[in-house]
């Protein structure tokens, strides 16, 4: 049980040095440049970060390639890889509060959620994939007598992982752990506004015995470090979580360079659908508020479009408004806080602009709609609900990635499905109903990679997160993620 005093003791801990980790050495940027890092909690200084260059990316990729080719990790006995990955999980657990507080100071997620979602999920992810090196086999094909067909599964080589700022440790681990478990070397680019927890994770992985060069970190701007990774001729696969715009650029970089594989986990505008036969409307209102407002809406799978059956629309909105207005918004290092800061000033301005736009589109503002707690120097926005939102409006179609909920009523199941499928995205959805047959029909009809029924949020590492439509391709989590980090090789052998 974490106490507030434990958190307070770490509020001013010194952040990691502004250095990359390349080939097992902590190095400054090739041109020595650094950038000041600030906290969204109060705008205060949070040390500096090395401003990576294309030369730094070259050095990190060369170190990763050397490590891969000489087999120090890629050909290490599976049981030895497994031991080291379990040790990584042990160290993440042992340092979980430190990692969580460091990450919260960097990106503003409320600590109650960060503890679970960041080190908690990262440790579980490392442990899950630690069990795979000695359990994933090749295959023998069912060939005619006199021939033998072998199907090997090999690591792809050098993986470039580009990570967003909303849950860097969790999302980073979803990519780093399976990539390492499969025997690859990895170069990680943390998000520029929230690099610290991934830098600390890399230190812990080295402490756990990961050989030099197997996990490298290059901090800096997406337009420099990320672009250099996307264009690099010696990265075999790029795995990315972030916005659709950057995802498109990465596909373009691959086309212009070495045709590397590109896997994209992108944004969403996820429908959360409440039918009038949902048994406990009070519970669904409470969970639905959390589904959009936890981490101040900076959640890729956030239930940002609420669709409510007309027969329960008004009472449901009353319950939702009450739940929303009761939420504690504020300093994310306070254990009672339920919605923390917006990760950066730029993101805060972007969300406020989208709120203004929604107002001009004629949606009815039910609560919120403004920046709050400005006296703190931090970036906070009141949980905001717009009702009677036009399904074709920008608010219903574009991702806000902030604490803004668009509510639209519907008449029947057919209309709910049509509305649910009316955006270019397909990341997640929620369905609230006590009718089992309807739940199954909705799972089949909604175009999305994850469908919650009578809950929202919380799927663990055992199930995949997959984007449909413009929400991406490939999967994070589960055994399916290993497909991104391995390639098949067939051997056809004459036996007679
Ligand atoms: P972003 O695309 O701006 O940045 C993501 C990463 O890409 C960062 O590390 C950034 O530095 C890097 N980057 C930026 N420009 C680049 C370029 N030209 N070349 C290469 N890399 C570049 O996204 P963000 O604002 O950090 O994250 C928010 C977005 O991420 C939202 O759209 C959200 O829905 C999405 N997201 C998706 C998932 C998922 O699993 N599908 C999870 C979390 C977040």
Summarize the main sheet: 7 strands, mixed
Could you report the average pLDDT, rounded to the nearest whole number? 98
* Structural category: alpha/beta
Low-confidence stretches: none
Cα end-to-end separation: 66 Å
Count of separate DSSP helical elements: 15
- Please bin the fraction of helical residues: 25-40%
Query: Order of strands in the sheet with the most strands?
Result: 14-17-18-13-12-19-20
**Corresponding CATH superfamily of the largest domain:** Aldehyde Dehydrogenase, Chain A, domain 1
Q: Strand portion, in percent? A: 15-25%
How many structural domains? 2
Q: List the ions, cofactors and other small molecules found in this model.
A: nicotinamide-adenine-dinucleotide
CA gyration radius, whole angstroms: 23 Å
CATH class descriptor name of the largest domain: Alpha Beta
The counted number of beta strands is 23
Q: What is the CATH architecture descriptor of the largest domain? A: 3-Layer(aba) Sandwich
**Gross morphology:** globular
Examine the coordinates and then state which fold CATH places here, giving the name of the CATH topology of the largest domain. Aldehyde Dehydrogenase, Chain A, domain 1
């Amino acid at each position: 049980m974490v106490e507030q005093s434990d958190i307070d003791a770490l509020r001013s801990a010194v952040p990691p040095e502004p250095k990359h980790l390349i080939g097992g050495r902590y190095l400054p940027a090739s041109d020595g440049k650094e950038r000041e890092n600030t906290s969204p909690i109060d705008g205060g200084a949070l040390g500096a970060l090395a401003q990576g260059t294309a030369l730094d990316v070259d050095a990190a990729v060369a170190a990763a390639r050397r490590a891969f080719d000489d087999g120090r990790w890629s050909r290490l006995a599976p049981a030895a890889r497994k031991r080291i990955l379990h040790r990584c999980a042990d160290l993440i657990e042992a340092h979980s509060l430190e990692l969580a507080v460091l990450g919260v100071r960097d990106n503003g997620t409320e600590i109650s959620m960060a503890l679970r979602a960041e080190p908690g999920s990262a440790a579980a992810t490392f442990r899950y994939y630690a069990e795979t090196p000695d359990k994933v086999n090749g295959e023998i094909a069912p060939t005619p007598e006199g021939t033998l067909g072998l199907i090997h599964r090999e690591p792809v080589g050098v993986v470039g992982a580009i990570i967003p700022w909303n849950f860097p440790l969790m999302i980073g681990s979803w990519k780093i752990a399976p990539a390492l478990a499969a025997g690859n070397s990895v170069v990680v680019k943390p998000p520029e506004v929230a690099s610290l927890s991934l830098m600390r994770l890399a230190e812990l992985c080295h402490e756990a015995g990961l050989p030099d060069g197997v996990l490298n970190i290059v901090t800096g701007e997406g337009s420099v470090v990320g672009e250099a990774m996307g264009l690099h001729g010696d990265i075999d696969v790029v795995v990315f979580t972030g916005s659709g715009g950057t995802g498109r650029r990465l596909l373009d970089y691959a086309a212009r360079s070495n045709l590397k594989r590109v896997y994209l986990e992108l944004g969403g505008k996820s429908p959360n659908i409440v039918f009038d036969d949902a048994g406990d409307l009070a519970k669904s209102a409470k969970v639905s508020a959390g589904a959009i407002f936890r981490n101040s809406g900076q959640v890729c799978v956030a239930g940002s479009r609420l669709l409510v059956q007309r027969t329960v629309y008004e009472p449901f909105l009353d319950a939702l408004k009450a739940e929303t207005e009761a939420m504690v918004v504020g300093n994310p290092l306070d254990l009672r806080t339920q919605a923390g800061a917006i990760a950066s000033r730029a993101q805060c301005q972007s969300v406020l602009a989208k709120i203004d736009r929604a107002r001009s589109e004629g949606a009815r503002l039910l609560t919120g709609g403004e920046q709050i707690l400005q006296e703190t120097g931090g970036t906070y926005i009141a949980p905001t609900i717009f009702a009677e939102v036009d399904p074709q409006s920008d608010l219903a179609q574009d991702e806000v990635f902030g604490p803004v909920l668009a509510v639209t009523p519907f008449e029947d199941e057919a209309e709910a499905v049509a509305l649910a499928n009316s955006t270019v995205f397909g990341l997640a959805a929620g369905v609230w109903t006590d009718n089992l047959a309807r739940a199954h029909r909705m799972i089949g009809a909604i175009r999305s990679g994850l469908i919650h029924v009578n809950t929202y949020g919380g799927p663990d590492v055992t199930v995949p997160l997959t984007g449909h439509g413009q929400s991406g391709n490939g999967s994070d989590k589960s055994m399916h993620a290993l497909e991104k980090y391995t390639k098949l090789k067939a051997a056809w052998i004459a036996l007679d």
